[in-house]
Every structure is written in structure tokens, then in C-alpha cells.
Give the backbone structure.
Amino acid sequence: MSEFWDSRYSTNEYIYSKNPNQYFKEKIDSLSVGNILLIAEGEGRNAVYAAKKGWHATALDNSKVAREKALKLAKENMVEIEYISKSYKHFEFIENSYDAIAIINFHIPSNERKRMHEKMCNALRFGGHLIIHSCNKRQINYGSGGPKDVDILYDVKDILEDFSELKTIEAYEKIIELDEGNLHKGKAEIIRYFGVK
């Protein structure tokens, strides 16, 4: 899978733009700074934004090409981010380590999802927040980006069940107009979740 993403990111442009995801920006702007983990962070747009706000940002992604571009973006913005080139399957989620965790457009098979989400919950500190912005299952009907395999897509019910130990602040599905580079553009059906441990 890393070969696929290395190939996709092998372009001078930032394929999902250099700007943070709008939902991520809205939520991170509302929180006190601390340690944040961004899973499947790609080219670093959200990690760099968090670092600019004063967060210690740890980005996780298995694409080495994405890592190079993320570190370049951080340098352009005169901030530092920690970028770990590793699959989520091999990352050690240390308990009570993060004040926030964000998964922006991160999709994994349903048979792995619940265990992965348990690890994320454990890695959050008490009072820590979880931010999710991802495609929902109906997004397969749109040409605005996202996976075409319904097995790796979510709905609100999935998220609420997986993160039942968190206090849900908001969780909803919505049709929006995506504008995040050429591969995320147009009408899309998304799911958003914001919760606290």
C-alpha cells in the first residue's frame, strides 16, 4: 500500500492542498494546545497547521514521499513536526499520550477498524479530544474523491459504537462541497465526529 501512496504523492503539487481540512481547523482552533497525533497524515497540511498554533504535532503515515513533502511544508511555515513513516498497524499507541487525535480521511477495513479505534481511545489522555472527518458510505456514489470500497467507509452508527467510551460532543453526516486539491473536489457525503475522553 505504501507504493500506491508514494506514487500518488510523487508530484510537485500538494494533491490535497496545503491548507488544513476545514473541520479539523475549526475544532483544533477551539482547543488548548498540547500533544496531537494525526493518523494517515499524508503531506502534512493538518500537522503543520497544528504546529503553527503551538501544538506538538506527531504525524503518522507509511508514505516516505509524503513525509518529505510534509517536512518541506513545515520548513516553509517555520515550524517543526514529528513525522513517523510507519503503517498504523505497526505504530505503538502508548496509553494516555495525546491531548488530541485526528483522523482526516482515514479509512481501513471493517475487520480492523474497531481494534484500531480502541487503541486510539487508550492513547488519548483524560480530557483529550478526538476529531474525525471522513467519507461516509454513500460517498461511493460521488466522483469527488474518497474510497470506492464500502467496507472501509463509516457511518455515524459505526463511529458512535466504536467510541462509546468517549463523550460525544457532536456526530453527524452531511453533504458538503469539497475543495481540497484536485482529488477532493465537488459535492461529497461526509461524516464528522468530535468527542472527549
About this structure: Helices lie at 2-9, 22-28, 45-52, 64-76, 110-123, 156-162. The chain has a mean pLDDT of 91.
